Amino acid sequence: APDSGAQPLSKKAQKKLAKAAYIAERKKERRAAEKERRKEKKRLLAEKRAAGELDPEEEAELQKRKRQRTDKGPRTFFNARVVVDLGFDEMMTENEVKSLTSQLAYTYSANRKAEHPFSSLLFTSLNGRTLERMDATNNAAYKRWVGAEWWTEGYERLWANTEDAQRQGDDADGSRERVEDGHDDAAGALRSSKAKGPARAAQDTVVYLTADADDELTELKEGDTYIIGGIVDHNRYKNLCLNKSKEHNIRSARLPIGTYLSELRTRKVLTVNQTFEILLKWVETRDWEQALYSVIPKRKFNTEGRRR
């Protein structure tokens, strides 16, 4: 008897799958072609340089590349942890889950490129469609993110059983860890984290960042842990992250947008990566106004708003 459990795809669904496969294949072809063009350009420049035939513009381009490689210098880690709480999977639509996973990639990329990255980046409550999409994206590339830690459990595991860990001689407050292998080795941060076991933090050092909090964040402190709510909801849910902070008896705070950007007339809800990039910029500049202006999209300063 034929298997009646599996329903055949509709023509529309088949076309959608075929289109997605075609786009993915074309993207791979474009990337390969671009890589070949860069290699060829590099080869031609090397040949011209060996022959002493470089023009001033080409010589300047080579010098610029050389400076970019040598001027970066060692990275100095800011010894605090940022947690992205992914415990909202069932509250989002498919498109919102898709948007969230992109934001997670931007967040990781921002930390990797920063001159003063956070020493610990932790993603908690990874489950459901968010997990499925992360597994399906670029052959589960997130598992190879250097310096990032992923939990299926919630962030409250940070302070669970810390007394037992202390009795065993472990560092109960993992958020105060220092990178052991120097300042310029992000891979060392990951090796250090794995060697010391799961991240830990004292409950009184944890702060949930939410626009609904009464208290305003004045500074970031090394040794503390800052939680960002990993949800895309277009402001449907009120006090969601604030209520979680109260439930787990941890502090909450909001970014000082109202203090430094009084002309911002639109809602003060930011994406995960925007919030993270503001924190990174503050670490770099120690200036909230500069950090906020450099990250918040300029369209949010449109006082006229969109009219229908």
UniProtKB/TrEMBL annotation:
Ranges for region Disordered: 1-73, 162-182
EC number of this enzyme: 2.1.1.221
InterPro entries linked to this entry: MT_TRM10-typ, MT_TRM10-typ_sf, tRNA_m1G_MeTrfase_euk
Swiss-Prot/TrEMBL GO biological process terms: tRNA N1-guanine methylation
This protein's record includes keyword Protein transport: no
Gene Ontology molecular function, alphabetical: tRNA (guanosine(9)-N1)-methyltransferase activity; tRNA binding
Name of the protein: tRNA (guanine(9)-N1)-methyltransferase
